[in-house]
Amino acid sequence: MATVYAKDQPAGFKNKIEKVAIVGAGGQVGKFITEALLQKGHFKITAITRKESKSVVPEGVEIKKVDYNEPSTLVEALKGQDALIVTLAVTVTDEAEKLNKAAAEAGVPWILPNEFGSGSSNDAVNQDTLIGLQKVTIRKQIEQLGTSSWIGLSCGFWYEYSLSCGEWSYGFDIKNRTVTFFDDGTQQLETSTWPQVGRATANLLSLKVLPDNESDKGPYLSQYKNEPVYFSSFKVNQQEMFESLLRVTGTKKDDWKITNEPAKERFERGKSMLQSGDRRGFGLLLYSRFFFPDAPGINPRSNNTDLGLSEENLDEWTAVAVKMAEENYFENVVVPRTTGRS
Fold first, then answer.
1. Domain NmrA-like spans what residues (predicted)?
2. Is the pTM of this model over 0.90?
3. Architecture of the domain made up of 158-191+234-297+310-339
């Protein structure tokens, strides 16, 4: 496909993103995205929230209240926006679909759908984890509506969250000093911190929409049209996470209870739990699937350089995870959020 240049666009063409709407601006990852956008200083940011929401958003963000049962409120809130960022849970497909339709009606050219996790380029993983299929469905709907283009930001699992929230995710129970290695704990995957997700989003939307002319060889937004963008903070395995934990906590291996479980057996155990109605099994099957030998947790490419992302310090973010575990972040923040919605 021939490259399109800004110089050839009609009068009035705007080669940058200025107005950004975000759903979930006060959420776990949404607040980091919103803060990173604000730090750029050149975006006008609108938080799209429900009429009844008590979510707190950063100062400097306009708030527009909507009712998902009244699509016209969504359309009105999205008029004039250059981009829509959706940070709803990937399982909230009904509202995501309503947002896509409203964005198309409002003429929003770019949508960053509710990805912000592991990529969905592996068909087998999509089938096994289910959420990958939901991501593909949302992407296809955006394309079929014919107005907006999507960009999927694929960052892997969130590092500090996944390390801190319990044995069911990355296999570590920090407070009780136990670890379960999946197989031998050496299968790598890519994982990102919340601030890295924020920086990646803000840097992506700060790119020119099109290259200026034939001599402009820098990255630009349209090169990612209807494509995933891959980035991460670390490429790491469980053994390396454990070594980092030992350094951060000042403990030795003998201070921890260490067990092993085959990743495939763990996946099947989680699947059986979920099928029997125990929702705790979903976390087991989801995380363990990305530690299979086919390495689905390794990105097919890295866009870190194009997004201007620098290397992060593993021990620094392991220390953040330790603090989160000690403060019961998952129990005090995440679990209560499941009873309310942004």
1. 18-151
2. yes
3. Alpha-Beta Complex (3.90)
